[in-house]
Amino acid sequence: MNRAERLAAILADFAKVEGALLPVLHEVQAAFGCVDAEAEATIAAALNLSRAEVHGVVSFYHDFTAAPDPRPCLELCGAEACQARGVDALLAAARQTAGERVRVKTVYCLGLCSAGPAARTGDRPAVITAPQSERTKRSQPALNDSALRPSVAPNDAA
Ligand code: FES
Q1: Does the beta carbon of 158 lie inside 6 Å of ligand 1?
Q2: Where are the alpha helices (DSSP H) in the chain?
Q3: Domain boundaries, the chain
Q4: C-beta of 77 in contact with ligand 1 (< 6 A)
Q5: Any residues with CB less than 8 A from the CB of 53 and at least 6 apart, and which?
Q6: What gap in Å lies between CA 155 and CA 151, rounded to an integer?
Q7: So what's the pLDDT on residue 128?
Q8: Does domain 73-139 have CATH number 3.40.30.10?
Q9: Does 109 sit in the ligand 1 pocket, CB within 6 Å?
């Protein structure tokens, strides 16, 4: 199945679904690694929307990209509960360590708020078992070394 056929099949799957734009965009992103301008135009025509409406949604949500990025992606939750548990330091450390080899993204709430900081690679959410929050690190500087080496533990509940 070529790209045009695959896109047509995705659109056919959602032909009778009300409010199909977001599900279609997620399917296209998953299938092609991006929602490019050509796909936006095809989706707009199929859903009887303007190209601007489709592009507005694509550019608003960070889940959609205009071009494929083959690098592995690490998503770290930057929402309030994970911020309180020290995700900002983890983000900085992850970006510094990964450099350009890994795409490190901030997302907002992975549903693991009580156990965060939360992360996701692919479809697999996980909790980062950092032993200290930022506040704890400031008050207990002797423990800083272990906090800079967080391990990612799979979430059994996910
Ligand atoms: S706030 Fe981070 S998982 Fe919910």
Answers
A1: no
A2: 3-13, 21-32, 37-46, 51-60, 80-84, 87-98, 134-139, 144-147
A3: 3-60, 73-139
A4: yes
A5: 21, 44
A6: 12
A7: 74
A8: yes
A9: yes
